[in-house]
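Exercise 7.
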Amino acid sequence: MDMQLQQLRYFLAVVETRHFTQAAEAVGVAQPTLSKQIHTLEASLGAPLFDRERGSVTLTVAGEALLPMAQRMVADADAAMVAVGDIAGLRRGEVRLGATPSLCSSLVPAVLRTFRGAHPGIRLHVSEGGSSDLSADLLDHRLDLALIVRPEQGVDPALDALPILAENLVIASDAAGPPPTISPHFELTQLAHTPLVMFRAGYDLRDVTLEALRQAGITPRFAVEGGEMDAVLAFVEAGLGVAVVPSIVLANRPLLRATPLAAPGLRRTIALAHRRRSVLPHAAAALRSQILAHITVEGALPEGVTVL
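Solution. The predicted structure, written as tokens, is:
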């Protein structure tokens, strides 16, 4: 059986008007075209749908049987078109964004505020985690986009990771206490005798810091170990030690002091990643564009963060 949606629309128009010419006018086609399509539908179904005697048009038994199903099929098709149109027009849908803790507490809120204002019907889901976990979530289709720290060895080839930002790592210390050094810049070797607040195992910043110390031949002194970003910053605010953090997280922390690291310093690259072979949903593509637009706005990024 070859039954087309347009034929069902013509059928319903005839049912409503009980007149082929008026039905043709209602759907915007010539009467012979509508009559031909009704005949084709009847041939496809193997039964007449209308009695056309003495100038009246009435439903046959087969037509009566088709009527509720045709109404439901056309209504479902119309609803589907509206739903898809809403998604394509960014009136509905969802985006699953992943970001590292430092970006969740700095860049992401401002981006989502702007995006939400432009697209209030889009549901936003944010996952906070380390870059390796976020990359795995992308590969497993649990995320649409992720802001990750790009490792030196690169990302999984199944991911497209566009470098968007470079940020300096700085020494965070308690602003109410004495500076961690009398010099304008903090020498990495000073961490050999400066109490250090260290992130938990598996944290991107922990790996970066410990590798830099290892290369410098330094064994750090841990004051506190095992926290997430907010906990580490709170421990530093309490005067328990210093921490190596991205400069971006100190933009709105007046109780903390940022001291630049001496050359060559430590920098990391932030990338915007998604699955390479997947087409981004409309909402995710719009959020990706919003992120890229946001980082180019003057004053949107704190000192020490540069656009690539």
